[in-house]
């Protein structure tokens, strides 16, 4: 069994930074190879394909300015640059919502709050010289809680992607024997209700250890479903969802061995 109280605070700080860098690179690569809503927006504005792709990739490269927000604490004035990536992604999501007729697409912003909020919370953590405060703890709890609430609502709406994952899992257990649609609906309703309930709890009490442990494990498993289901095409979505399990892990470890105000 892992002794969470023995985790080195400096190592935890490094894990957070490495996690964000991997997330950012995954977002960049996914946009570079598969496109973003920016590309479609420029196309609809009358830009030629090559010009639209060029502008889209300029915006993707701009997101790397966020890395300057991770400079040493002596240069904490640059920490605001950590907002560059989430701002670009928020605009991308809004453009996607306007462009899509998919049911439940309006919940994309809520479901993505963990990914979006991770660098923003890191900004405040950087400005506090990586001192674990009540405000930062609640900020991380808010972002990850909203993410699970958003995913729970999508499950209650019977998101087609989630149904595919369930059929895939049942297929691994019983070859060529798929469950009835009613059972899949009931499972998604149960998962959705649990996600919403635990998301609300962690927003209210971000140091609830049992809930954090569940969110960490569930966040990792649901992220892992992407490469299991889609193969190599699911690797980038997996890395993009690192905050879904890293934030609960950070809060869980923090609840064990870091008093508020402790410098990481």
Structure in words:
With 264 residues, the protein is mostly helical. The protein has one domain (4-263). Helices cover 71% and strands 2% of the residues. The protein contains twelve helices and two strands, in the order H-H-H-H-H-H-E-H-H-H-H-H-H-E. Helix 1 (9-34) packs antiparallel against helix 3 (49-62) and helix 6 runs antiparallel to helix 7.
Which terms summarize this structure?
264 residues, mainly alpha, two-stranded antiparallel ribbon, 12 helices, 2% strand
Question: Strands, helices and their partners?
Answer:
Elements: H1 9-34, H2 37-44, H3 49-62, H4 84-99, H5 108-111, H6 113-127, E1 131-132, H7 134-156, H8 160-173, H9 181-204, H10 209-230, H11 235-240, H12 243-257, E2 262-263
Antiparallel strand pairs: 1-2
Helix pairs in contact: 1-3, 1-6, 1-12, 2-3, 4-6, 6-7, 7-9, 7-12, 10-12
Helix content: over 70%
Q: State the separation between the terminal residues, measured CA to CA.
A: 23 Å
Strand segment count:
2
Strand order of the main beta sheet, please? 1-2
Shape: globular
Beta fraction of the residues?
under 5%
Task: Provide a short characterization of the protein structure.
Helix content is 71%, strand content 2%. It is an all-alpha fold and 264 residues long. The model has no long low-confidence stretch (mean pLDDT 88).
């Amino acid at each position: 069994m892992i002794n969470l109280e023995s985790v080195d605070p400096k190592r935890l700080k490094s894990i957070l930074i490495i996690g964000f860098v991997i997330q950012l690179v995954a977002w960049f690569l996914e946009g570079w190879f598969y496109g973003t809503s920016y590309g479609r927006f420029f196309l609809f504005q009358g830009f030629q394909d090559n010009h639209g792709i060029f502008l889209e990739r300029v915006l993707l490269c701009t997101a790397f300015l966020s890395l300057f927000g991770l400079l040493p604490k002596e240069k904490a004035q640059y920490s605001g640059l950590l907002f560059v990536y989430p701002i670009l992604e928020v605009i991308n999501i809004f453009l996607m919502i306007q462009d899509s007729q998919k049911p439940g697409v309006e919940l994309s912003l809520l479901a993505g709050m963990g990914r979006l909020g991770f660098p923003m919370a890191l900004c405040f953590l950087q400005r506090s010289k990586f001192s674990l405060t009540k405000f930062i703890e609640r900020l991380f709890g808010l972002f990850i809680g909203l993410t699970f609430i958003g995913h729970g609502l999508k499950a209650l709406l019977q998101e087609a992607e989630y149904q595919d994952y369930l059929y895939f899992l049942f297929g691994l257990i019983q070859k060529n024997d798929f469950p009835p649609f009613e059972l899949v609906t009931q499972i998604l309703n149960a998962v959705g209700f649990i996600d919403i309930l635990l998301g609300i709890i962690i927003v209210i009490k971000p140091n609830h250890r049992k809930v954090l442990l569940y969110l960490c494990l569930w966040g990792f498993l649901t992220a892992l479903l992407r490469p299991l289901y889609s193969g190599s095409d699911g690797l980038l979505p997996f890395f993009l969802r690192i905050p879904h399990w890293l934030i609960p892990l950070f809060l869980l470890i923090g609840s064990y061995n870091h008093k508020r105000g402790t410098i990481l």
